[in-house]
Structures are given as structure tokens and as C-alpha cells.
Amino acid sequence: MFTYLLKRTVTLLLVFIGLAILIFIIARIVPGDPARIALGPLASAQQVEEMRQEMGLNDPFFVQLWNYLAGLVQGDLGKSLLTSRPVIDDILGALPATFELVLFTVFLQITLSIPLGVLAAVYRDSWVDNFTRIISLIGVVTPGFVLAIILQLLASYQFSFFPVTGRVDPGLNFEPDITRLILIDSLIKGRSDVFIDAFSHIFLPSIALAAAGIGQVMRITRSAMIEVSRFDFIEASRAYGIPERVVTFGYMLRIASVAPLTILGLEFASLIGNAFVVEFVFSWPGIASYGVRTILQKDLNAVIGVVLVSGIFFVFANLFIDILLGIIDPRHRIREGSSK
Amino acid sequence: MQENILEVRDLNISFSNYGKTSKVLRNVNLNVLRGERVSLIGQSGSGKTVTMRTIIGTLPTPPAIIESGEILYERKNLLALNRIERNKIKGSGISIILQDPLLSFNPVLTILRQMEDIIKYSDVRRGLSRGHKERKELICETLAKVQLFDNERILDSYPIMLSGGMRQRVLIGMALLNQPKLLIADEPGTALDVTTQKEILDLLNMLVANEGLSLLFITHNLGVVREMADRIYVMQSGKIVETNHRENIFNTPQDPYTISLMESVPPLYGKKVIDVKNSNPIPDEMIKISNLTKSFPVRTGFLNRITSENHAVKSINLSINDGDIFGIAGESGSGKTTIAKILVGLHQPSAGQIRINKSNLEQLVELKDYRKLIQIVYQNPGSSLNRKRTIAQILSVPLKFSDYTDKMIKDRTNELLNMVDLPISYSSMYPHELSGGQKQRVAIARALSLKPKIIVLDEPTSALDVLVQGTVIDLLQRLKKELGLTYIFISHDLSLMRNFCNKIAIMFKGEICESGETKDIFSNPKHLYTKALISSIPVISDLEESLKPKVTDEERSMVLQNTRKI
User: Which of A5, A124, A237, A244 to mutate to test the interface with B (most CBs of B within 10 A)?
Assistant: First the structure.
């Protein structure tokens, strides 16, 4: 297990370093002078040149890269040209909201799609199966932002329980200072009113964000379950008198969950991408609005920061899933680990 | 008169698939007495597995419909019991051993956990509560019964970490955990090598005798039945066509189907054995293999470094003549398929030399012409043919790469279908529309398409039923005569080789331990491993049994010990 973990961690570290270098190169290739952007169109050529000197843009490329990576190790992502604050502070301020949204979305995806997929497999070719098939199709074909807008319209006209914008009612006067995730902090502090309010805020954006993944994961769970149900050992377990519930959830689902979990890990990338749009629609105070603004303004330091943080998200989600898979299916470990 | 432990009465079962119903069991009647060993024998699709599933209660309904009939276990009709009553019998009354020892395990749980689960849930049903320690004691006792003693290591292992024979033993142990009275075995050991299979069958026989079990043994292998049954049921397309005591079935079979089954088993000794000879009076040397070695790197550790080498084939010398049917026999992992792959140029040898038709293999492999000289037929036609292509397309692939015009391709594919006795109308069909034997004929036709001189046959009949196996062998013999081919026949089925090959090499752990004329090897085997191998083959008559080389159990385990994985 240890070798397996170490191998995975080192691979991901390499991926991360590669990402950092790549995004830095891309940022230097795109046209537009960051110094000029920072100073505005009215600045003189000399001012721009001084700014370039100060920002280190005149140094050789590799020196810039080195300084950048060295800063990265110390958690320094440079200054935002837009807000003139350290990028890291801006990102850390906006991150918890996005993190909460994504976590809740993944939670929704797992709790909805896997049980539905299992149901569809157990009652294969019945109306249950057909019903889930339709749901998953709708979920997969509807773009996240369309769903977001539809849900917002419905909420504003029909279901007034769900607010259409924001993260929590500011009137409740709640400071999430423990985990910085409102849903969790309100539970810790026993503020049920805040929890309900935050839940009603996060529900619609999460549904809009989760829909595509739910559809996919549901279908994959279904086919994985059906495949596993054909294995001899399932028949053997039944014949040895293991109860049906243990066979389905203890044996079959455990093996079948490998495929949907892998997909969930990959889905994470598109989840972050879609979160940008959904957050915009619902005015969610997350990293997305910051990201979009910085991209439009060519605030390169901030863009690099946002991409890197999204990358870390993705890399860690997949590390987590890899570890989970190693626990679920020991064959992953046995093949790759030290014990041959 | 002994009492019945199991009785199946007038069982009729049909399957409904998209509105169509087809009958799979017709009036099946069978019974097993207490302490009796009964065998149900039939080819694939005969309904023996459906019968087994109905008895153990894992038949999926739908699509299956139980139309009528009763299954009485200790005078209780299983089909009329409710789920709770039925579950009490599962595992503790009737238990099963399924065919494939790897697939029958849950791959992600340790052996200990799987065995504990079986005890735990049967305890729940019976209202017992045994702790972890008691359960483990019971498990160790059971493992001792199946002659496994390295308990700590086995119990902490996952199924893939054990060897095939060990898995099969553990599997038998699992079936015995809840002290069943009736054991149903669905072709146990068929996925194993003959020597291991022999040990497993001996073990089963011993257990049945010691524990007073009844055994219902389901198989397609007549040789195995002879060792495993007191009474036999022969099943054909959903019907029991003949039932009798073992001696009667083997000595005086009545039903034409039983007779044809008996005749399709290639004999090992006796009058019926065909002595194959090379048809060329003074044959030329076709293939010369000298000092051939192939090793595969073993990568381990953090950086995937090559830490050791696994020698699949070690310094092999062989000489194959023009017109030979040269058999390479051996058990799994002995290196016989590696040789096949090197010969057709799919692997590069690590050392040594191969001369084919007096040219060096290294010079040949790069050439297109080489493909015209040597071709291969694989074991499983289900996976060696592209499912998305028609038969005509499959056959034309090799032709397209060697300057045939469209017209010539069409003529050649028709000719090829003719050669393997398939109607030309098949050319527009897809592989899944054909039976296993027909698919293998297509695979043979494809190998012949470029008119090769040598064909490597990698277990071409082992995925087929015995009756079909016979027709494919006949076809191969005819083609050899007509086209003057040389065959390299790779197989683990020695009785088939006895009647098909004129020369044989026996492989053991990557080396050839014995080779020569087929007749000599069988009448006078020299190497102990050859003896052990031949003596493990299940045969269908007492005469053959008496002519087998005699190997004591100690000798057998001594020679086999080295081959076992830990």
C-alpha cells in the first residue's frame, strides 16, 4: 500500500509541476503587455518600461520561470493587477464558496446517481430502468448554463423557497470561520436557520452543475453493476446463502463502483469549468467571477493563480480517488505495489 | 432401498426472450441417493447448467419460466418453499462448486473475509451467533479437510495471489463450510491442468467418502465421469436421453447420442488409436530451432526497474520436418505458446536461432513473404475473429495486403470457404451467426488464405465440444493431405495428440523434457513428468487405464512440486 501511495503522490506532483510550467509559458506567449495593462492606456512609454523592469518582465525567460516557481513554493503567486492585492489572498477569499459548491455537487452526484444506477441495474428493462435512462439523457444533453437559467426562472416564479442569487442571506449575520464552509460551520455552531438558508441557496446551482455528471455516472454504474452480476462468484455467493442485500450492496456495488468513481475523478475538471458559468448565473461569490474578470482583463498573475488552484483541485481529487480505488479493489495495489 | 436426498420430477423450463419462448428442459427426471455420486453429462447448451441453477435456486426468472415440475430435497419441494425457507437450504443443505476457480471468488475480498461471510450469514439464518475466533477455527478445520495447511497466508490472500490448484481447493472448502449434505459440482477442474485436475478429483472423491456427502457432478468430459460417478445421466438438448450405472454406460451404451459421445473421445491406448506417420517418405527439414531462449523482464518497485528475468523458454532445440504434425504438449506456463508466438514472428527470441526453410528467422520476419510461409490459428475463434466484419471481409484481410485484385479476392474467399466445408452463402454473415465449430473453420480458412506451408495451431479445438472437436480435426487432416501442409500443434490434450500428431515434444517449465515419435512417447515414456502427465489423463475404459504408465503419488507430487506457484 505504501509504495502504491508513494507512486501516486509522486506522479501527481510531477503533473502539478508540469502544469505550473505550462501555464506560465502560455501566459508569456499570449499577446499583450501586462505592464501596459496594469498602467492603463494613458501611461507613457517610459512608465511602462519602468513597470516592466519592476515586474521582472525584462529578465531572461528562464530567470522569470525560476523566480515564479520559487515564489510558488512559498505560496506567492504575485500581485493581481486588477485588485493590487496578492493573488493568493484574492483566491483564498473566494475559494471556500467554490469549494463548498463543488463538494456539494459531488455529494449530490454520488448520492443520486449511484443508487439510481443500482436500481436501474437491479430492475433492468423495467419502467424504473427506462425512467432513469430518460433522466440521465436529459441531464447529459442539457448544458449546465441552460439548466441554471431554467432553474433560476422556475425559482423566481414558482418555488420561492429557493433564492436565485447569493450564498447565504447576509441578514442572518453568520461568519463561517471554522471550516469556512457555511453548510458545515452552521451545523457545528448549531445554527439550523443558517443551515436551511445556505442549503436553499446552494441547492439550485448544485443541481445545475451536477446534472451532466449524474446522468453519466448513473449509466456507468448501471452497466458496471450488470457486468458484475454476470460473474460466477455472484452466483456462488447466492448459492452459499449470502443474503441478496449483501450480494448487491456489499459485493456487487463495491466492485462496480470502480468505474463510476474513476469517471467522477475525471468529471472534476469539467465540474470546475462548468462552475465558472453556473456561479456567474447565480451570482455565487466564488472563484469563478474572479477568474472570469481576470481573464477578460488579462490579469495574467491572477489567471495563472486560478488555473493552478483549479489544477490542484483536480490533482487532489484524483489522488483521493486513486487511494479509494486502491482500498476498494486490492488488485490495483497488488499489481502496482511492491508485492509484485 | 436407499433414500433419495434429491429428486427432480418432470421439470420443464423455458426461456422467454423478447416475446419468443424456447424450451430448454423437457421432462427432466433425476434423483440422487444419500451418499451416491451421480453425474450429469452433456455438451454445452444441453441444459445441464440450467438444471443445476434450478436446483440451487439461482435461475433468473424471468427470462426463465419454470413451467412445471418439482425439486424435492429431503422430501421438501424447493420450488414451493418461500424465500426464507429456501435460503436455509442454500449453502447448508445444498452447496456448489463452480467451474472457474478464479471467477468463483470475490476478487476484492480476502479469502478469510469471504469464508467468514458465508458462516456469518448462515448463522444469522439459523439463529446462531459465533464469534470471529470460532469462525476462524471452523475455517481452519475446513481448510485442513481440503489439505491446505498454510492457513495464515492463504486466509490473508486475495484470490489472485493463489495458484489455480489452491484456489480450487479453497473453493471446495467454501462449499463445505456449512456442512452441506449434497454437493453440486459444475465442471470443477476443467480450467486446470490435467495433473492438478487429477489431484482435485481425487480430493473430491475422498471428501465424498469421508464426509458422507452426496455428489451431483456436472461435466462434459467422459473421462472425468468415469472416475467421479456411480450413476450417470446423459443429457441432450434439454432431455435426459439415457441413465444407467457407470459400468453399463461405458460398456454398453444404448442411446445413439451416448455412443457418439463415446466414440468422439480420442483414445489413448488400444486398438482404436491411430498411428500417424509423415506422408513424405524422405522429408526435408522445415524448421530448425536451436538454443532458443526467451525471457521476459520482471519489473517491480517504485521506478519499475527490471529486477529479474522470467525465462519462458530455455535453450530449446527442435527439428520439424516437411509434412510433420508436430505436437508441443505442456501445461499452462510451460512456454508452449511463447514458442508459437516466436515462430509466427510476434515475439523476438532473446537468444538462439530459428531456421525456416533454410533461412534465418531474423531475416525473414521483416518480409511480407514470411507471412505467406507461416500462419497461425488461435484457440478461441470467438475472440480471434473480428465481430464487426463479415466472414468475407475477415477472409479477405490477408489478401488485400498481398496484391490481390477485387475479383481475385472474391474468388479466393469462395474457394477458401469451400475448402473448409462452409457454404459460400456464409460469406455475408457475421461471426456471431456461426457456431463455435464453424467459426474455427473460418479461422482456419483465414490462415490458409495466403497458401502458407506451415500452420501453427494453438489449441485450436480446446474451446469446442468433443463432437465438434472431432470434425475440426478431420478437416485439418484432410487439408494437410490436400495442400501438403506442416502443422505445429500446440495443446494440453494428450489423448487428442496421440491420434493426430506424428511427433511430440513435452514441455516442462520452459524446457523440452522429452520428444520423439508419438507412439514411442506413449508406449514408453522416459521422463517422470511425461509419465505423471499421461497417467493423469482421464480415460474412458479400463483397458486404457491399465496401460497408462504407473506413477506413485509420491513421485507425482515430487515432480509437480517444482511447478507450483507459492
Answer: A237
Beta strands per DSSP E along B370-502: 374-377, 454-458, 486-491
The rounded distance, in Å, linking the Cα atoms of A36 and B320 is: 81
How many CA atoms lie within 13 Å of B269's alpha carbon, on the beta-carbon side?
20
Q: Are residues B453 and B495 in the same domain?
A: yes
CB contact under 8 A, A241 and B92: yes
Q: How distant, in Å, are the alpha carbons of B43, B290, B390, B435, B443 from that of B432?
A: 19, 42, 10, 8, 13
Separation of alpha carbons B255 and B240, rounded Å: 10
> Is residue B540 in a domain?
no
B356 bridge partner residues: B287, B359
Torsion, Cα B197 B203 B209 B213, to 10 degrees, reads -80
Residues B260 and B363 in one domain: no
Q: B300: Cβ–Cβ under 8 A, 6 or more apart, which residues? A: A338, A340, B307
Q: How many CB atoms lie within 10 A of CB B430?
A: 16
User: Beta partners for B290?
Assistant: B353
Return the percentage of chain B with pLDDT > 70, whole number: 96
Classify residue A126 as exposed, middle or buried by CB count within 10 Å of its CB (0-12, 13-18, 19+).
Answer: exposed
Average pLDDT over residues A1-21: 82
- Quote the cell numbers at residue A59: 529578465
Beta partners for residue B215, in sequence order: B37, B183
Please tell me the least confidently modeled range out of A255-264, B20-29, B55-64, B393-402.
B55-64
User: Residue A203, Cβ neighbours under 10 Å: how many?
Assistant: 17
Q: Which residue has the cell 479400463?
A: B542
Task: Verify that B79 and B197 share a domain, yes or no.
Answer: yes
Looking at the fold, whether B167 and B294 belong to one and the same domain comes out as no
Do A6 and B302 count as a contact with CB atoms less than 8 A apart?
A: yes
Q: Specify which residues B504 forms β-bridges with.
A: B327, B516
B92 touching chain A per CB within 8 A: yes
Instruction: List the domains of chain A with CATH numbers.
Output: 2-73 (no CATH), 88-336 (1.10.3720.10)
Q: Are residues B127 and B201 in the same domain?
A: yes
Is any Cβ of chain B less than 8 angstroms from the Cβ of A125?
no
Q: What is the pLDDT of residue A340?
A: 34
Looking at chain B, which residue has its C-alpha nearest residue A330? Answer: B108
Q: How far is B357 from chain A (nearest CA, A)?
A: 42
A331 Cβ under 8 Å from any chain B Cβ: yes
pLDDT band at B565 (very low <50, low <70, confident <90, very high): very low
Q: Considering only A226-240, A251-265, B332-346, B364-378, which range has the smallest mean pLDDT?
A: B364-378
Q: Which domain holds residue B27?
A: 4-264
The pLDDT of residue A338? 40
The string of DSSP codes covering A159-220 is -TTS-SS-SS-GGG-----SSS-HHHHHHHTT-HHHHHHHHHHHHHHHHHHHHHHHHHHHHH
Counting the structural domains of chain B, the total is 2
Rounded to two decimals, the ipTM of the complex is 0.75
Q: CATH no. for residue B293?
A: 3.40.50.300
CB B24 within 8 A of CB B47: yes
Amino acid (1-letter code) at residue B9:
R
The model's pLDDT over B251-293, given as tens digits with 9 standing for 90+, comes to 888 888 888 888 888 888 776 777 777 777 777 888 888 888 8
HSE (CB half, 13 Å, CA atoms) of B428?
1
Give the residue among B5, B72, B22, B77 at the shortest CA–CA distance from B238: B22
Backbone φ, ψ for residue A146 (5° rounding): -60, -45
- Asked if residue B23 belongs to a domain, the reply is yes
Give residue A43's pLDDT.
Answer: 78
- B121 in contact with A at a CB cutoff of 8 Å? yes
Closest by CA to A65, choosing from A54, A49, A78, is A78
